[in-house]
Amino acid sequence: MSDKKELRHNGEQAIRAVDENTRVISGYAAVFNRVAKITERLHEKIAPGAFKNSLGGDIRALWSHNTDIVLGRTVNDTLKLSEDDQGLKFELSLPDTSAGRDAFTLIKRGDVSGVSFGFGVKKDSWDRGSDGQPHTRTLVDVDLLEISPTTIS
Question: Do the bridges between strand 135-150 and strand 42-46 make them parallel or antiparallel, or are there none, so unpaired?
Fold first, then answer.
C-alpha cells in the first residue's frame, strides 16, 4: 500500500439530514464506476468491492478532513459503513457537541452537500490512454481511513 493519503470527492450531492432529534445524516461517500476527472490526462473510477477489506477497521468521520474534529467512528457504531451496488454508503450519528450540531444544521440547510473520503491505495489498475485520450486509473482495493462531509462535492 502507498504511504500517501489521497482524498476524493463524490462529485454530487451525496449527503442528507435524516433525523433532527438524533442528528443522523446519511449518504454515499463514494460511487462505483463513476469516472472522475482528476486532471485533463488522468481520470479515475472506483471498482465495486474496493472498500470491502477496510470495512471491519477503525474508520473515522471527520469534518472536512480535519483530524481535530471527529464526528464519529466505526468502532463505537456512531459511523456505519457498507457497500451496496451503488457505492460506499454511510450513516453517521453526529455528536452532541458544537461541531456536531453545526454540521447537522449546515447539512440540513444544504450549505454542506458533499462527501469526501481519505484513503491509501492497496491495488489499482490502469488503462493507458492513447492518441490524446486520458489515462484511467481504477481503484480496486483501498485502505479507507476516513470519510468527511465537505463543502465541495
Answer: parallel
Which pTM value belongs to this model? 0.87
DSSP H or E run through 144: strand 135-150
What are the cell numbers at 35? Answer: 469516472
Q: What is the pLDDT of residues 132-143, one digit of tens each?
A: 899 999 999 999
**72: which 3 cell numbers?**
464519529
Summarize pLDDT for 44-83 with one digit per residue, the tens: 999 999 999 999 999 999 999 999 999 999 999 999 999 9
The H-or-E segment that residue 99 falls in is helix 98-109
Residues 6+ apart with CB under 8 A from 98: none
Grid-cell match 449527503, residue found: 15
Q: Which of 109, 34, 23, 33 lies closest to 61, judged by CA?
A: 23
